[in-house]
Amino acid sequence: MIMIKQLSYLTLFILLVSACKKDETTSLQWGELAKEKREAIEQLIASEKCDNLNDWTIEKAANYWCGHSYFPVHKRIKTQFEKLWNEYRELESKGIDAGIREGIIYEPCEEGIWHVSAPIQLICENGKAKLLYMKDLSLADSKAQIIPVKTRIDDYLNNLKCDGTNNWTTTLLLKDCGIDYIPYLTTANLIEIKKDIALYNSLKKNILEGEKPNCPVGEYMYPTGVKCVNNKPVVELSK
Q1: What is the DSSP letter of 138?
Q2: CA 116, CA 86: separation in Å to the nearest integer?
Q3: What angle do CA 204, 207, 210 make, to 5 degrees?
Q4: What's the whole-model pTM score?
Q5: 64 CB-contact burial (10 Å; exposed 0-12 / middle 13-18 / buried 19+)
Q6: Per residue in 97-155, pLDDT tens?
Q7: What is the C-alpha end-to-end distance of the chain, expressed in Å?
């Protein structure tokens, strides 16, 4: 009887030690598992023939760390897709947790330049669903579409007023060579202007990649603040 009790205590101890043992899976190993799960998602989507766009939707799926991913999803596989995506996010979270333990530093989710990341169209191509993005626009379409966007941005800048430097900051606007800094008030409603600047930058990127302008190398100027000059916000720059 005493021997049985000792064995029971030993078994309990082993179970407790096993339960408390740290997961030694590396971030690289978690990353490989996440990659396999992502491939399973792509295979699931490809398994459905695309011949009627009414059966498909563009699904916006939140990444574990930053931003979103977009997928064409047939109505028949939506539940399966959501299950796989949740499993993928779980693998990603475990990979990042392991990376933090390994000393990897992950950058915070900050948007350096406003741009359009969402797809602009869902099409059927060769029987497969396909998402089109801003980069898929032709050079001619990009140049035509950027004109009214630039007009709206110019109108925004012309109508800006300031009576103090509090709550002012800047964002980037691509140029033929280099960048401009656009002032904006963080307390204002930025939905429309952010949408226009993001669209402009995405179209401008297409144009720059298509035309490849020969830009001289110059000194980088970065914004140090926003000041008011004649009730207009002016971005201060420094080398």
Answers
A1: -
A2: 25
A3: 150
A4: 0.79
A5: middle
A6: 999 999 998 888 766 789 999 999 999 999 999 999 999 999 999 999 999 999 999 99
A7: 83
